[in-house]
Design goal:
single chain, 157 residues, 6-stranded mixed sheet, 4 helices
Length: 157
Amino acid sequence: MIIRQLDRVSVDAAALPDRARGAAGQDGGSGVAVMTAERVPGSLEPLQLELSCRADGDGNQVVSVTGELDIATAEQAYTFISDVIDAWETAPVSVDLSGLTFCDASGLGALARVARHARQTGHQLRLTAARPSLLKIMRITGLDRAFPELAPSAGAY
């Protein structure tokens, strides 16, 4: 598996730190910063992870995570999301997990590290659209406490 960075860039990528700016070159029209995993030629392995960043209508940053967040991709995810957090001084950052198909212990660790990084730098970070199976593991491990928006409603149990 080779992790490579696509040649797409956010409109605001110039504001990203050097590490994140490396995640995208200029193609002049995609409107998002994207990092993705690529299949090794001749390999039957599926693409593992795609990370993209866009601004929502309120100017908040939304990082979309698609694919597998595991030992092979956790560090890249942590770096990408941390760089987005660092690049936007006041805008809250949401991590959209609707496309996440698998998350192992390394992936949970990356989410925990991202939460700690956001807290230590005084930024707001939210997880959105987490699948029930991921929520269950986060509750079992206590990671849900790092993300108050994941707290179950009173009628959930």
